[in-house]
């Protein structure tokens, strides 16, 4: 039902040429020819020489039998030859094959990771005027990106005979990402998202060369992750026992992601955003004294009955250690996301136990208490041999996050002490932290029209820091928080708006990309391509590919 809804909403726009909202305005941008890739490759040679592919004997091969590559070949062949009516052109030279060459397939047994090697996802793609085409990459992950690009170069040409052909321009592409961390944050706590929905999103991520799925698993509203060590968390904390991520569900998502070169980073947000954990494990959370007398009483809107972990008990840290050990073993990423945002102190302030603890330990104020929690939680995570990501919030209180990778999410509008995201970037990088940037890219906020332009124009290094401070940016994430988003509207809200973020994080040099008027023609193509790829079953019956022929672009110039 989800697929159908989106399909019918957007289909008409993909059947015609790209037209302005009013007939008398002329779109100013450069008319990219059909088969133009997204995100923009670093070096993209082009000629006007066309070659064709013959679906019946086109060979897609590789020098590795790694399942990431063989799986990708099986997946991409039907996407490349998606037009069921295409026949072979007699006028054009047919290239016989695409060969994928990796230098090493040593990553095949591993999940993708944050890697500082600039060639970790690099590839070259060579389509000569005769002979076979080639993708060459150092790693299987780079080869995946190259195959994705190749699939985007193939389009359908309608010639005078009315026939359609799968065609690619002769070209040579050299490409690698600008940032190693390019993510999408999905929230499965405010509303549950099914494994099917997550997989469809992973597909779309792969079409945009995103490589991190930041999984905000749990929050105040629900705890859908089924822990083996602490099953009560989800038994009591999930919406229902049908709205659960079992260990096998997680493994299924991770395998799907691995085959697409995407990391999955789990987040269990604490010490705040833990209200749902109180149902299975009330002892973990500070009992608030809302009426001044009884533990576990709310004082709305200052605090609930229990909503922040209890920093005063050793058992809290032991619990979290056991839980994170399980997450580390299951998710197998070097990084765990610890949350640490929006810790409200009102509940702690209401608790005589917390005040006694502070007096006994010489803790002067509630910020220091938060620091105490951070220190012990972080020491525990480091004890597991993991690295960790934290939202920026503790830094605003002047607290120390150790060697955290810090996710900057605030700007003037999202609240906080500063009026722009640049100020937050200055603050965090000024203290030497590496940064993941999200402030501009809260896609759960919606507005009418082409708001992707705003996301596209926001560059995470565009703040007045030193060269060294700007080099601390390791990437960014587009976030879709789940308060008003579930499986019905997630996809429509994310794509193609997140594609703008994808190009911002992948493409370099930045100055080729100054202009959203130009990008418009490519993002439009890309949107249609994604639609075709994700609903290819319907597409093969309904879609008429006239929109990607040259003739539609002629006359607009
Ligand atoms: C292709 O070549 C033309 C002419 O050199 C250039 O203007 C254009 O930007 C190039 N790239 C693409 C993607 O068309
Ligand atoms: C591909 O070839 C066509 C037909 O000659 C040409 O119009 C188009 O500009 C070429 N595409 C690129 C990216 O150069
Ligand atoms: C709690 O842990 C701290 C730090 O490891 C230790 O110093 C303290 O003795 C422990 N308290 C109890 C009651 O076990």
Automatic annotation (TrEMBL):
The active site is at residue 342. It catalyses: Hydrolysis of terminal non-reducing N-acetyl-D-hexosamine residues in N-acetyl-beta-D-hexosaminides. Residues 37-153 form the Beta-hexosaminidase eukaryotic type N-terminal domain. GO terms for cellular component: lysosome; membrane. It is an enzyme of class 3 (hydrolase). Residues 1-16 form the signal peptide. SUPFAM superfamilies: (Trans)glycosidases, beta-N-acetylhexosaminidase-like domain. GO terms for biological process: carbohydrate metabolic process; ganglioside catabolic process; glycosaminoglycan metabolic process. GO terms for molecular function: beta-N-acetylhexosaminidase activity. Its EC number is 3.2.1.52. It comes from the Eukaryota. Residues 179-508 form the Glycoside hydrolase family 20 catalytic domain. Keywords: Glycoprotein, Glycosidase, Hydrolase, Signal. Belongs to the glycosyl hydrolase 20 family. This is Beta-hexosaminidase. It comes from Darwinula stevensoni. The lineage of its organism: Eukaryota, Metazoa, Ecdysozoa, Arthropoda, Crustacea.
């Amino acid at each position: 039902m989800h697929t159908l809804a989106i399909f019918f909403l957007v289909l008409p726009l993909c059947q015609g040429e790209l037209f302005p909202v009013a007939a008398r305005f002329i779109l100013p941008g450069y008319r990219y020819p059909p088969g133009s890739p997204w995100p923009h490759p670093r070096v993209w040679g082009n000629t006007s020489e066309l070659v064709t592919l013959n679906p019946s004997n086109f060979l897609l091969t590789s020098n590795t039998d790694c399942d990431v590559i063989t799986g990708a070949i099986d997946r991409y062949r039907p996407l490349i030859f998606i037009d069921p009516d295409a026949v072979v052109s007699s006028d054009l030279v047919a290239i016989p094959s695409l060969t994928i060459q990796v230098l090493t397939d040593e990553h095949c047994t591993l999940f993708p990771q944050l890697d500082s090697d600039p060639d970790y996802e690099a590839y070259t793609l060579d389509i000569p005027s005769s002979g076979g085409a080639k993708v060459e990459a150092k790693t299987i992950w780079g080869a995946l990106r190259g195959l994705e690009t190749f699939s985007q170069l193939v389009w359908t040409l309608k010639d005078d005979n009315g026939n359609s052909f799968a065609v690619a321009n002769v070209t040579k592409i050299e490409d690698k990402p600008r940032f190693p961390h390019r993510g999408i944050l999905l929230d499965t706590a405010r509303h549950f998202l099914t494994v099917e929905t997550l997989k469809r999103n992973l597909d779309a991520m792969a079409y945009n060369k995103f490589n991190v799925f930041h999984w905000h698993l749990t929050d105040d509203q629900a705890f859908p992750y089924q822990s083996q060590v602490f099953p009560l968390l989800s038994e009591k904390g999930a919406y229902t026992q049908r709205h659960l991520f079992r260990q096998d569900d997680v493994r299924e998502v991770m395998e799907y992601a691995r085959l697409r070169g995407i990391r999955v980073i789990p987040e269990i947000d604490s010490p705040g955003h833990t209200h749902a954990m109180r149902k299975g494990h009330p002892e973990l959370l500070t009992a608030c004294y809302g009426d001044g007398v009884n533990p576990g009483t709310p004082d709305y809107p200052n605090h609930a009955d229990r909503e922040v972990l209890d920093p005063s008990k050793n058992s809290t840290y032991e619990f979290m250690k056991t839980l994170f050990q399980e997450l580390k073993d299951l998710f197998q990423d070097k990084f765990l996301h610890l949350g640490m945002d929006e810790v409200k102190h009102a509940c702690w302030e209401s608790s005589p136990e917390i005040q006694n603890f502070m007096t006994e330990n010489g803790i002067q104020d509630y910020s220091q208490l938060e620091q105490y929690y951070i220190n012990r939680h972080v020491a525990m995570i480091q004890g597991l041999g993991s690295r960790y990501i934290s939202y920026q919030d503790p830094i605003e209180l002047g607290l120390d996050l150790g060697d955290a990778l810090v996710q900057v999410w605030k700007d003037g509008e999202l609240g906080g002490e500063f009026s722009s995201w640049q100020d937050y970037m200055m603050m965090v990088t000024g203290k030497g932290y590496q940064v993941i940037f999200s402030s501009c890219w809260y896609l759960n906020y919606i507005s009418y029209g082409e708001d992707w332009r705003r996301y596209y124009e926001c560059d995470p290094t565009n703040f007045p820091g030193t060269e060294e401070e700007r080099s601390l940016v390791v990437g960014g994430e587009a976030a879709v928080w789940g308060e008003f988003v579930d499986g019905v509207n997630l996809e429509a809200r994310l794509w193609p708006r997140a594609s703008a973020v994808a190009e911002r994080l992948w493409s370099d040099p930045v100055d080729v990309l100054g202009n959203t008027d130009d990008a418009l023609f490519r993002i439009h193509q890309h949107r249609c391509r994604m639609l075709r790829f994700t609903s290819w079953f319907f597409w093969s019956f309904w879609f008429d590919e006239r929109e990607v022929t040259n003739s539609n672009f002629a006359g607009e110039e």
